[in-house]
Amino acid sequence: MGATAAVLERHLVMYRRLWRGSVFSSFVLPVLFLAGIGLGVGGYVGEIGGVGYLAWITPGVLASTAFQTAIGESTYSVMGDFKWVRSYHAMYAAPVRVGEMVAGRLVYILLRVVVAAAVFLGVTALFGALRSPWAPLSLAVVALVGLAAAAPVTAFAATVEHDSYFALLFRFVMIPSALFSGVFFPVEQLPGPARVLACLSPLWHGVELSRAATLGVFPAWPVWAHVACLLVWAAAGTAWAVSAFGRRLRD
Amino acid sequence: MQSLIHARGLVKRFGDFTAVDGIDLDVAPGEAFGFLGPNGAGKSSTMRMIGCVSMPSSGELRIFGMDPVRDGVRIRGRLGVCPQLDNLDPDLTVRENLTTYARYFGLSRAEARLRADELLDFAQLRDRAASQVEPLSGGMKRRLTIARAMVGDPALVLLDEPTTGLDPQARHLLWERLFQLRRRGVTLVLTTHYMDEAEQLCDRLVVMDGGRIVAEGSPRSLIAAHCTPEVVELRFAEEGDHAGKLAGVGRAEALPDRVLLYVDDGDDAVAEVHRRGLAPSGVLVRRSTLEDVFLQLTGRTLVE
């Protein structure tokens, strides 16, 4: 696993150069969302499940930000590292295994997601939106959501030749997931088939667990079942990514 | 001594297309070995198999005595690869490109910094160390790529068309750097379609065409075996069958703009040309080069 750390380090060195561009989407935007929807819309909504709307959507926005950051960071940059920069080809000429490239990249995304979530959690604590001593556990949830989203998207990005696929991914997968996975309203509101789709999305499982942590309530399914669903996404996505990287680099 | 690269009947197929069609190779430690050939001859496919990123379809291949299919990572740890397309990280600085790459080879951060310093000197890029890669000239990027290939202190360096697209100054500086590596005992394996590059850098080379090795030897011995010592280039003001009147003088090859005469002694041949009443408007007597051998062996048809 030696080269995993080296791959992670390369991504961190790159990020040190490029971080300014991500500050708004990682740190500012989620807080604006919370303020705009939590306070603004929340003023009309009243309470859900015995808590104010702001406190209710906070864990959802937390998980959703992780989900969207993980997807966004796993699209253009993965394809670019194959197609334009060819940095994976450079790694593969050095003694780096395909599994180490994938692992180094996923750990980098985890760090990004968890650091952004920790800042967000601090801000929401000031809003008084955290109602349970379990709240810090939501960082572990967010890490799992990040992995469950980043792994399959990384694999997908390693297989495509054109970036227009990403626009489709954002429009038909990421945005619907963010809207209908229980972030802004309970999935019970959705018609039957849409609820099934929501249950397939890793984001819904993340939102349920995250909400359980910050509000100290029970999630919809047993905790282990939500965790298992996220782990399946993460494991299957990672396996797919390793195979996609290998096919792209070897002939 | 054990050969660093050993291949017998090496084949690479892509579907129906056979890129490398059963080649035998042995490269000894300290050698500078070249693959020469037109585009599509199978040079790069062979290099990719040696670099352990492409799996042989059949035949035997051993690098450092190891099997690239099983020991790819261990072999790659002792190789330096300079690919045809630069794959530097454009957003990183020159120095960061070296240090991040050194970490892939298991160097500690402190070792990586020291190594980067040495290699910045080697590549004559020290004053650009803090500059990003993107604005560098083509020659600087190539030197950086070669320096980066050296971070793991490789026993064998693979260079795929190292000077393609560079201006003459940049090429000469690069050759000089590669010559430095040779003097340190590093084994170089390179592909090129520049004859002067092969003559400058290679102790021994093979000419590939259509996936096969069609000739092998030192640059001098290839010229001796496949060409005459001298070539006379004749240009004529008026059109006509000039080559036909040169029978017996030497092998004559008529090109659209000139006639090439392959002979042992160029001055004797020129005298004979004049004796036969031919009046060329331009005469050039020169020594044969690898280019003559190359064109002789692989033909003049344009490969695109």
TrEMBL record, chain A:
Belongs to the ABC-2 integral membrane protein family. Residues 21-248 form the ABC transmembrane type-2 domain. Pfam families: ABC2_membrane. It is found in: Cell membrane; Membrane. GO terms for cellular component: ATP-binding cassette (ABC) transporter complex. It is a multi-pass membrane protein. Keywords: Antibiotic resistance, Cell membrane, Membrane, Transmembrane, Transmembrane helix, Transport. Its main location: membrane. GO terms for biological process: response to antibiotic. The chain crosses the membrane at residues 21-45, 51-71, 106-128, 134-158, 165-187, 223-245. This is Transport permease protein. One of its GO terms (molecular function) is ABC-type transporter activity.
